[in-house]
Amino acid sequence: MPQVKILYVEDEPFLAKIVKESLESRDFKVIWIEDGKEAIPAFERHQPDICVLDVMLPNVDGFQIGTGIRRLSPKIPIIFLTAKNQTQDVLKGFESGGNDYLRKPFSMEELIVRVQNLLQLAGAQFPEESGTDTIPFGRFRFLPQRLELHIGEKVRKLSHRESQLLQILVKNRNAAVDRREILQAVWGDDSFFNSRNLDVYIAKLRDLLKDDPDVQIITLKGVGYHFMVG
Predict the structure, then answer these.
(1) Does residue 74 have a cis peptide bond before it, meaning omega lies within 30 degrees of 0?
(2) Are 93 and 82 a contacting pair, CB within 8 Å?
């Protein structure tokens, strides 16, 4: 079985060496690039299986790289690494094609788990078998294995976390879901930063679901959410 190739773009040599060695110890092949302007050529040359991109880079930032990579390969998993934690930065990351967003400083174990998770999802996204589980609600059809939300002829691609969150809400349709339970299930803890992330994802899901007014995510102040399906 060929090694999984990771395009890793990071301009801090000390951090990059630690990350590269840790990933290689798990049998990943790491293509490390220091300069943002070299990232797209390296992507085209090496054809990696997943990209791990720092945001603050010389010449071309990680968001620009993510946008460029997404144009070349719409389905490749992308993880952004950044010290930024503002909501608008998180949103920009996902708008730039990111599937996940990891704030510095991070543990190597967390990065490795996220890399493995996205790779597994990417593999499940395009199964050889023609069948796939479909979850209907309202006018929508949700295909969690493919990370897709269908309504009529329109298909919306979901990130991994959007899909995780939607699965929890759909499973608890027309019932209250505790906010802390969602945070524990999706992020592993209910820290303030992850709580802000949840707010971002709820806003994104509301936007995705607006095509059917009978499907709503209602905020229950001090409790969590009610996923209403008419």
Answers:
(1) no
(2) yes
Same-domain status, 85 and 142: no
pLDDT grade for 198, boundaries at 50, 70 and 90: very high
Same domain (yes/no): 11, 110: yes
Say which CATH number the domain at 118 has.
3.40.50.2300
Sign of CA dihedral 121, 99, 224, 152: negative
* Residue partners of 223: CB distance under 8 A and separation at least 6: 176, 178, 179
pLDDT tens figures, 52-78: 999 999 899 999 999 999 999 988 999
Residues 121 and 31 in one domain: yes
If asked whether residues 20 and 82 sit together in one domain, one would say yes
Residue keyed to tokens 């220091």: 34
Closest by CA position to 85, among listed 102, 71, 100? 102
The whole-angstrom separation of Cα 22 and Cα 19 is 5
Does the reported pTM lie above 0.70? no
Q: Which of 75, 87, 90, 89 is nearest to 121 (CA)?
A: 75
Whether 130 maps to a domain, the answer reads no
Using only C-alpha atoms, the chain has a radius of gyration, in whole angstroms, of 18
In the numeric block, which tokens belong to residue 154? 């329109």
Residue 63 parent element (H or E): helix 62-72
- Could you identify the residue written with the tokens 């890399």? 115
The secondary structure of 22-57, three-state, reads HHHHCCCEEEEECCHHHHHHHHHHHCCCEEEEECCC
